[in-house]
Write a structure and sequence with these properties.
Blueprint lengths: L2 H15 L2 E10 L2 E7 L4 E7 L5 E4 L12 H9 L2 E7 L5 E8 L2 E8 L6 E6 L4 E4 L42 H18 L6 H28 L4 H12 L10 E6 L6 E6 L6 H45 L3 H13 L10 H8 L4 E5 L5 E5 L2 H11 L5 E3 L9 E3 L12
Antiparallel strand pairs: 1-2, 1-5, 2-3, 3-4, 5-6, 6-7, 7-8, 8-9, 10-11, 12-13, 13-15, 14-15
């Protein structure tokens, strides 16, 4: 947000939030604050971001909050209960919120420049109560520590950030401009991993994928070692055909194998402690054991491949997730699988997960309704609850991705059109 846009938006924003009572303050990320306000007419949510996507505006987006409010958020909750007004300072990328609280008047200065920007709470006497990012006195740095006087920074001469993305002529409508800012920056902030547990979920899935790939390689090697399981049965059959040549106490016997052409001479190892019949039975037991082992290997390989496909689907879903709700659904699936253990689950989250998952909808060029899921839960709900018997179902074979349902009127559509 550049100086011109800030100069345009703040008067309109001030008209919306002046004298608003603060219901709650949240800090969803290190550099983002959300004020829940009541201005006497309606509830509003004011967003302040001092990070890479620095901006101030109203928001309608859902921002997941940490279980424990950070230090600066707790301080703001304790010290300010009302926003009396806000204005731009020195025609710069600085906004000053004049606030009131149980200990009197104070000011919240929001600096939308630097890496990162900052928010500083200052008392009526001009001394710093605390800062979002504390800074000690360093080379060329202002001191931003509790108890120190607040000194405005030198005027910033930087130009516009990403000009043209949010037209200034829309700034007269604070709600329309705020929606444009939400549309522009919320997806960027969300995809950067700042919001929700995207980073934690990505680590879990990457770790689980690595573990399953390693297990699958080991299983395949084990299976290759057991491919000769028929050897025990073959040797047992040869021994039964030559029992008359075997005596107890022999360690081996050489026989002709007429199953190959020309016949081969085969040496059968024997246990001298066993009778000829018992040696044959031991070979058949070895065959049955090896066959069970190979069946077990095949089952483990199949189960591991299914688990790996599930993880790949979740990794795809995570990459495609665009809302905190979709992240919560992914986190719930991992939690049910025992892979993700958050500190606690908020009751609101439990209620949301009890509701049917969101399914995306659009219309085909021919006017037919198309539905698709964004994750496993939505895919399952779509395929088993919403799809009718005459609808068409699409999914890329052996590949992660959405299930797609094409609604059809059997009197109007043909398979070729689908």
């Amino acid at each position: 947000m550049d100086r011109n846009l800030l100069d345009t938006i703040l008067p309109a924003l001030n008209a919306a939030v002046a004298n608003a009572r603060i219901g709650k303050i949240h800090q969803p990320t290190d550099d983002t604050l959300i004020f829940r306000l009541w201005n006497g007419r309606e509830n509003l949510r004011l967003l302040i971001s001092t990070g890479p996507y620095a901006r101030i505006h109203l928001t309608e987006k859902d921002y997941p909050n940490p279980f424990t409010p950070p230090r600066f958020c707790q301080l703001l909750r304790a010290r300010i209960t009302r926003i009396e007004s806000l204005e731009q300072v020195n025609d710069d990328r600085i906004a000053r919120f004049d606030c009131r609280g149980p200990e009197g008047d104070c000011h919240l200065y929001v600096e939308l420049f630097g890496r990162p920007g900052n928010a500083i709470l200052v008392d009526a006497g001009g001394r710093i109560i605390d800062a979002l990012v504390r800074r000690g006195a360093g080379a060329g740095e202002r001191e931003l520590l509790p108890g120190r006087p607040y000194v405005l920074p030198a005027t910033q001469k930087s130009g516009p950030i990403e000009p043209g993305e949010v037209p200034l002529d829309e700034a007269v409508d604070i709600r329309q401009l705020s929606r444009r800012l939400d549309e522009e920056y919320y997806p960027k902030q969300f995809r950067s991993g700042q919001l929700g547990d995207r980073g934690a979920l990505q680590q879990i899935l990457n770790r689980e994928r690595k573990r399953l790939v390693r297990r699958l390689e080991n299983i395949r090697r084990e299976g290759e070692q057991k491919t000769d399981f028929n050897t025990g049965r073959h040797l047992g059959e040869l021994l039964l055909a030559n029992l008359h040549r075997v005596k107890k106490g022999m360690t081996e016997v050489e026989v002709d194998d007429y199953t190959s052409q020309p016949p081969n001479r085969v040496v059968i190892p024997l246990d001298p402690r066993l009778s000829p019949q018992e040696n044959a039975e031991a070979l058949f037991k070895r065959y049955k054991k090896d066959k069970r082992g190979l069946d077990h290997v095949a089952r483990r390989q199949r189960e591991t491949e299914e688990e790996l496909a599930w993880v790949e689907q979740l990794r795809h879903d995570l990459d495609q997730a665009e809302t905190p709700e979709e992240l919560r659904e992914l986190a719930a699936e991992l939690r049910q699988a025992g892979l993700y253990r958050p500190a606690r689950i908020e009751p609101a989250t439990r209620r949301r997960l009890d509701n049917p998952p969101a399914v995306r909808r659009t219309r085909s060029p021919g006017g037919f309704e198309v539905l698709w899921g964004r994750n496993n839960r939505a895919n399952d709900h779509l395929s088993h609850r919403l799809a009718a018997g005459h609808d068409y179902w699409f999914h890329a074979k052996d590949s992660p991705g959405a299930h797609v349902i094409l609604r059809r009127d059997s009197d109007r559509i043909t398979v070729s059109e689908a």
